[in-house]
Amino acid sequence: MKHYQNALVVLGLLFLGTLNAQKKFSPEELSSFKQDFRKHILKKMKKHNITGVSIAMEIENQLIMSEGFGFSDKSKNTKATKDTEYPIGSVSKIITSTAVLKLCTDGLVDLDEAYSHYVTDFAMKSHFGEDSKITIRHMLSHYAGLPRLRAKGFMKKEPEPLEHLLQNSKEEYLISPPGRVYQYSDWGVDLLALLVERVSGMPYEDYVEENIFKPLQMTHSYFGPAKNTKGYVREVETETYKYSHSGSDGVTSSAADMLKIARLYTKTGRKSARGFLSDAMVEDALQKQFTNAPLAFDTGIGLMWELLPLKTGHTRVKKAGVHEPFYSYIFFIPELDTSIVICSNSNSSSSIHWDSWGKLYAFMGKKYKASKNHQAEKPKVNYKKVTLSNEDFKKIEGTYSTSIGLLNFKRNGNAFDVDLKAENKKGVGVPYSNGLIKLYVKVMGVKIHAMDVFWKESEGEIIIGEQFESGTRHVMGSKIRTKTIPNSWKRAVGTYTVANYSDNDYQTIDKLQLFINSENVLEIQGSGKYPREMGIQLGLSPISEELAVIPGYNFDFFGGETVKLKKESDGTSSLYLSGYRFKRIDK
């Protein structure tokens, strides 16, 4: 009987192997898709005024495309190719995470050891009582409680040593205890680059060159500005900043080279890499991290990679990077050995990256029963209108500092009047079950459903976030904790300008206005001017005569950071925020 059972197992495995073999696309199918995909790219480039694009694509471990479209430099009539080099922005973070995982594979770093074990002179200030250690895993998955970045000095005309990060860190505050909430952090990744330096005994850039670029034959990858590729905004040549710290935003690469990085994490690719990264490291990198964190919700973050389960039972892995006006995206399905890398020199190109992924995924669906909806189905929840308790109304009422500006909720009967201050729109928030609030606004006199907001109380903090149609929830901000404004902050109301730019800084912000708004909330307004225009609207929770916190998470900049108010020796007031010193100029 045992031999009979073994024979059945062998036959079953052979049958499954046959089914898998049948799932392979034929050369004719792949050729037809390639031609159709080319037409798709040219159509999208024309629609979105895109000057140049390079694409590298594999399907089931077969190289299907590696070529360029349009121009890398229109003034010289230089065509884009598979080897055109682009600043890849935050895709540089994957180079850093891969370097850290290589050190782990080599037994030199432990993911769950404290960062300070390797970088002993690292220190940051904290408003939190517990002495929780920040681990390498926290930093790789953006759960370390570190700020987004130290904005002043992030963009530089010439490179600066990573060691500068340590002096900066000593002056700044954590935004949360580690392991509590996802906060995307360039700062954390640059600190990981410093870790690579300390552990390897080599400059970070040298370690990457010798241990990643050369072994993987990434001959068009290096640190610093692109040598021969120009950037464009709506086909007009546009300058970009030259440098930022190497770990988070410092790499220039090609689509063909970045495909070699993706291969390290695919099923067949990692086998052919002969242990470059251990199986354990790759599997860890592609597993969701900190899913039980108090404010995890549906973050879907691995070790630097963004993860999304698909209806087919597979996983979409993604990383995007922006170095204005350059855009780069990597998408892959590790179980199917299918990857696509899209790099562009045009800031209007984000849609072409998503459209290209959608085109590839729809094609894969012919064999793997994929859906046009790229996301796995979630159990449907029937939300019903509810009447909140007086206590819950009181908890929710107030002003929130969020990724879309300030939101004010004020009770009106069994609903809320909602003021979206950044957009100068007013709406109505209707409470539903499971902590949901449906937000409606009037546009040209017509009431429309604008978005679904959820709320949650966590450790005395009221969090709000966006709930998408799929049911996915993402944190976007938190409530201003107090409206009691100390006299020192009241006296500081006025206009401020940056007083500490160095010759090596790009001037990113000009002026800020500190004032008390109509809800008696201390607020900062201003605008970023380089490398793109960006409105700044921040609510402050004063916690002392000298300190205030910008509540909230997942902002482009400043979410959760601490603002310091200081009286200078000449009697003027200054605000210290994210490395900037703003000096008052209206008195």
TrEMBL record:
Signal peptide location: none
Domain Beta-lactamase-related: residue ranges: 37-349
Highest taxon in the source lineage: Bacteria
Gene3D superfamilies associated with the record: DD-peptidase/beta-lactamase superfamily
Stated name of the protein: Beta-lactamase family protein
Organism whose genome encodes this protein: Flagellimonas algicola
Organism lineage string: Bacteria, Pseudomonadati, Bacteroidota, Flavobacteriia, Flavobacteriales
